[in-house]
Amino acid sequence: MTTIHVGILVYDYQAIDIVGPVDLLHSANAGFLEVSKVFGPIDDGVISRAPNFIFHHVGITKEPFHLFTSAITLTPTTTVDECFEMHPKYVNLIHRHINARKLLFTTCTGSAVLASTGLLDGKNATINHAEYSWAKENYPAVKWTKERKWVVDGNIWTGAGAIAGMDMVAHWLKERFGQDILTYAARNLDYEPRGIDGVSPMIPKRYDESGKQLSTHEFFYHSALDLRMYSLV
Prior knowledge:
Elements: E1 3-9, H1 15-27, H2 30-35, H3 44-49, E2 52-59, E3 65-67, E4 72-74, E5 78-79, H4 90-99, E6 104-106, H5 110-115, E7 124-125, H6 132-138, E8 143-144, E9 150-153, E10 156-159, H7 162-177, H8 179-188, E11 206-207, E12 213-214, H9 224-232
Parallel strand pairs: 1-2, 2-5, 6-10, 7-8
Antiparallel strand pairs: 3-4, 9-10, 11-12
Helix pairs in contact: 1-7, 1-8, 7-8
InterPro entries: Class_I_gatase-like, DJ-1/PfpI, INH-QAR
Organism: Fusarium tricinctum
Keywords: Glutamine amidotransferase
């Protein structure tokens, strides 16, 4: 099992920009897939390959932070001062992270925050497409595009709007851990991720014998007895 620590900077973002991708990642956790056997059989071999994500909400302090856009108050789990070998300023934290070749995701206008550090200069990126013209005007050194729902340039992944950010994370899950783990994670959310064009499905469509399209996901409910029987096969 691969353990991956995910650091999330606490500032005034829109809740779904973070909550959506985090819920998808958490739904791919080995422990969550194990619990999800109640909804349908999941092969133990798949669970053994599933990751273990640990989330850290990183604030300047641990004081509660109110999200203006969502009427949600966050309590950071750690501070930038307590992060191992991290500088106490966000911009320096991001610089260190990128220079260490660690993976960085942004969603929605998070790419503008990243652009303000200069780390996107000369790189390909996207942003919430409603902010495309604004981004080009304010950060002209970035190679902005609105032709894709997400853009990958090296270790930097930038997503467009909030749901596009979920699609981006879904693609990374598929690429890193396999189609089956993505499918189980998406099933737990009844979520059908789109491809990079925003149209094509990432999970294959299902059809019955007559050619009629079925629901993308299969949903079952297994009793405790069913689970005991399943564990024996």
